[in-house]
Amino acid sequence: MAQTSLLQGTLDLLILRTLALGPQHGVGIADRIKQVTRGTFEIKAGSLFPALHRLEADGWVSGEWGATSAGRRAKLYTLTKEGRKHLAAEQKSWARVALAIQQVLEMQPEA
Amino acid sequence: MSLWSRWRARTRTLVDRATLDHELDRELADWVDELTARYEAEGVPRGEARRRALVETEGVEQVKDRVRDVRARWFFDHPLERLRFDLTTALRSLAATPVLSGAAVVTMAAAVGVNLAMFGLIDRALLSPPPGIEAPDRLFTVSFLAPGNDAGLRTSVSYPTFRAMRDQVQAFAPAAFQRSAMTVVIDGDQRQVTGLAVSATYFQVLGARPALGGGLIQERDEVGPAVVVLSHAFWHAAFGGDPAVVGRHVSVQGLDCTVAGVMPEGFSGHSPTDVDLFTPLSVAMHSSPGWDRDQYRNLLAVIVRVPPDQTVTGAETQAQHALGYRIGLSPIVGADVGATEQRVAWWLTGVSLLILVIGLANASTLLVVRAAKRIQDVVIRTALGASRGRLVAQGVLEAVIVAAAATALSLGFAAWLDEPIRRVLFPNLIGRSDLARSTVMAAGIAGALALVVATIANIWQVRAQVQAASVAGAARRSGRTRTMTGLLLVQTALSMVLLAGAGMFGQSLYKLAAQDFGMRMAGVAVVEFEQGPNVENKNQVLGGVLEQVRALPGVETATVIDTVPFTGFNVPPISVPGLPEPPKVGGQLPFLIASTPELLKILDVKIVEGRGFTAADDRGPLVVIVNQTMARLVWPGEGAVGKCIRIGFDPDFDPELSVGPPTPSAKVPCREVIGVARDTRQRSVVPMDNEAHLMQYFVPFSQEPLPPFLPPGPHVRGLMLRTTTSVESLAQPIRRLVVGQRTDLPFVRVVPYVQMLDRQLHPWRLGTTLLALFSAFALGVAAVGLYASFAHAVAERRREMAIRLAIGARPSGLVVLVLREALTMAGIGIVAGSVTAIVAGRWIQSLLFETTPSDPLVLASAGGVMFIVAAAATLLPARTASKADPNALLRV
Q1: Residue B34 within any structural domain of the chain
Q2: Are residues B720 and B769 in the same domain?
Q3: What structural domains does chain A harbor?
Q4: Nearest Cβ partner of B58 from A25, A45, A54?
Q5: What 3-state DSSP class applies to A95?
Q6: CA distances from A106 to A95, A101, B536 (A)
Q7: Counting CB atoms within 10 angstroms of each CB, which of A4, A78, B680, B794 has the fewest?
């Protein structure tokens, strides 16, 4: 499937949603997004890490050193309480935006 | 994860650039490793797998750059976060030098606290209206200007004059009052209180109502029910706040009165001076018949309320028309505070500003020393890329934190100092300073301080930064810097000014008290009480117990007295045969002192010519002893002994017909001068004008001439004793003897004779006490500053010290080296301070007695104290220098 360029701000939403399922490290997050979107979004390190660090600075995720499920050493990111709240709010607003865009796209010429 | 630890983790990762970069390196390495492993698992050879992983990452360094970019932008977008970060850094930096930071906070707080307390007191006493009165801005005190003489201000008038103001001037509503010590007997307990006798209009003019009871409700001032209203504080002190106090009976000035109410808490009448009770004029004056008719008894002070529809000048003009002479209205604030006290208070407030400057200089010194200790930090942060602006911002923030802490602490200091300073400065002022006002002021002062201190510290720090950058790693150690030296000089010089000021006042006070008054006042006590209504004859009361008082252990001699110097004046008519006019010095007639033989002995008044009195004089011919000034002026060039003077009133003297003071005619018998006594001081401790040499004469006690309207016989006003023990221990037994079984006597005072000078010495005592306190503070602060900067300098120069020791310097030599530097600086400070003191001393010259600002003794002692403090403060650093270990320090 052809890859789609990501809407500004959407990456944050995807990362937060991914982390809502449990702590993950960088590779894990990228894998999960790729898998869930069936390859529509392939996140590159150049986008992922800046986004992760910005989210960490905002206090929505927190990073701590740990081990992946495969036993590799990695920095694991966890969704914080505020991050969870933020995600809920963002999801709602995303739903509104998506609906609005859909309505615009499905517009029919007036008879 | 708690909020705090999360926040800390966040700031740490944001802040700590080195840690952050390191972690990012690891994180990306892990990323690449994992991708590599994934390719390897697909069978790609290791080298190729790694290459592919890197390609997929699209450049590790680029990723790092983007992350850093995001971080920087995030910081820029979140000023609050940045402030929080700066705050943490500043706090951490301050905590790294806890002693210096703490000392800076404490000195700044103390300096601000002293000023807050001073301004709080000045505000309460001189600038704010007293509490509990309505629309105080429409209330005025009245001064009366003598006709044709604007300088001749009077503050009191007779009752008829007040009545005229009340009845004839429509432009204001006046109230009259008299403040005096009153004797109150509550349940048989005699005590002396401060009473305010007030006109019927008083409470209405102030707009005050009692909190309990009906208060003073009178129709007229001249007669009325015997009632009294208590102040809230006295109600608590004397009646334990008993709510059933209204209706109880107390004896006031010997008159049985009913308690008619209690005023609200904090209310003290028209001025913030403490008062125990309020009585109608008729109660307070019941023992002075004629008070309400006599035009010449100026016993009342007056305040007026000017209604909003009238102007002050309008009211003044109208009053002038009604009264026939001018009056002046001044705002009610500062009423009842003496002019000298006001002057000294304002002046001391100026002095307390010096404290502020010293505290400021000291806090700056400490912060600069601190900055010097933290220079490595600055260097590291610069190396890590902190901009100059950020460093300056952090310096400012550190100063602001110090100032904020100091502000909070200064409020505590001010509250603590309020009471002791009040006791010295305004002993009768009531209430506490307004905390809200103090807070605003503290914030203002501390804010300004923070700004100055921050500026100084920053100039220093930025300079240090430049130095550090240019010398790469700050290997060069400079020891004490010019900034520090300058600040230390300010402190030593100003401390010196304060010390010199304290010395000037102290010396004035000492010289005033140590003057030769021509008599011996130490060890002498006076027993007296006011003439009360039920005490027709003090002679019986006091004269009757004289023998018993003499027999008390600790009493050497005792005598009856009428007026003696500093307790009152007796100036009867006098004439000298052969002289056309009564003798006068500077317009003042001679003072008469009725004297027993014992009195001359007790006061140790020396007879320089002729003889003193003996017991036989009581029944012998009329005799008199004159003082040297009188002998010299009345009989110049001749001996006074054997001459004659006439004293007292003609037998047919009629006060109704008399115009001006009478002169005794030949009908008054002649009194022979039998001796000449040394001059004794009569009324003023300051020997200005002719005060040191006024004319006085002594007559035997039984021969005292009395005006015809007084009952004949000796007039006992009190007792005087020479004691061998403390007056305090004698007071109670004497009071018991005098009062006996009676409950109607006024309060019996037993006081040391020298206490009669207290009122006059008060301004000097005030100046000495407060300046001594201030100088002690200044010295302490200067000592801290000296210690801190020398300790720092010695630490910086320990290699130099070690080298000196290694090449043969003796440890004691190093002590001398450091001390010499400290004392040189102290010396410069002392010289600068002395010059300032001499120049500034001109402003207080008029307050000094036999002391000039350039008094060598004062300046030398002040300088000596400053030297000792400087030496003591730097001795420890000097000893540290002498203990520098060449082995440990030079091996590196």
Answers
A1: yes
A2: no
A3: 10-105 (1.10.10.10)
A4: A45
A5: helix
A6: 16, 9, 118
A7: A4
Residue B813 lies in a domain: yes
Tell whether B424 and B407 lie within a shared domain: yes
Among residues of chain B, what percentage have pLDDT more than 90?
25
**Residues sharing a CB contact under 8 Å with residue B787, sequence separation 6 or more, in sequence order:** B873, B874, B876, B877
Q: Based on the domain organization, do B326 and B313 belong to the same domain?
A: yes
The alpha carbon of residue A106 is apart from the nearest alpha carbon of chain B, in Å, by 37
Of residues B38 and B465, the one with the higher pLDDT is: B38
Helix axes B758-796, B811-840, angle to 10 degrees: 140
B667: number of Cβ within 10 Å? 11
Question: What's the domain count of chain B?
Answer: 4
> What is the secondary structure of B740-778 as a DSSP string?
TT-S-SPP-EEEEGGGGGHHHHHHHHHHHHHHHHHHHHH
The pLDDT assigned to B599 comes to 93
Examine the fold and report which residue of B55, B77, B99 is the final residue of a domain before the chain moves on.
B77
Average pLDDT, chain B: 84
Q: Do B711 and B786 share a domain, yes or no?
A: no
Q: B748 and B783 share a domain?
A: no
**Strand pairing class (B623-627; B671-677):** parallel
Q: How far is the alpha carbon of A95 from chain B, nearest alpha carbon, in Å?
A: 27
The residue-averaged pLDDT of A2-27 equals: 79
Q: State residue B476's pLDDT score.
A: 43
Q: How far is A57 from chain B (nearest CA, A)?
A: 6
Please report residues of B whose CB lies closer than 8 A to that of A53.
24, 67, 70-71
Q: pLDDT, tens digit, for every residue of B232-274?
A: 999 999 999 999 999 999 988 878 899 999 999 989 898 888 8
The answer as to whether B867 is a domain residue is yes
Domain finish residue from B284, B307, B332 = B332
Mark whether B472 and B566 lie in a shared domain. no
Put simply, the answer to whether B6 touches A73 (Cβ < 8 Å) is no
pLDDT by residue (tens digit) across B803-852?
888 888 888 888 888 899 889 989 999 999 999 999 988 887 877 888 88
Same-domain status, B258 and B376: no
Within 10 angstroms of residue B764's Cβ, the number of other Cβ atoms is: 25
In this prediction the pTM is 0.68
Question: In what helix (H) or strand (E) does residue B733 lie, and over which residues does it extend?
Answer: helix B727-739
Expressed as residue numbers, the domain containing B609 is 524-755
> Above 70 in pLDDT, residue B7?
no
Residue A77 to residue A68: CA distance in whole angstroms: 11
Chain B partners of A44 at a C-beta cutoff of 8 Å? 56-58
CB B860 within 8 A of CB B789: no
pLDDT for B68-94, tens place per residue?
Answer: 888 777 776 777 777 777 788 888 888
For residues B199-208, give the mean pLDDT.
92
B187 vs A83, residue with greater confidence: A83
Q: In angstroms, what CA-CA distances link B658 with A23, B34, B573?
A: 114, 125, 13
Supply the ipTM of this predicted assembly.
Answer: 0.85
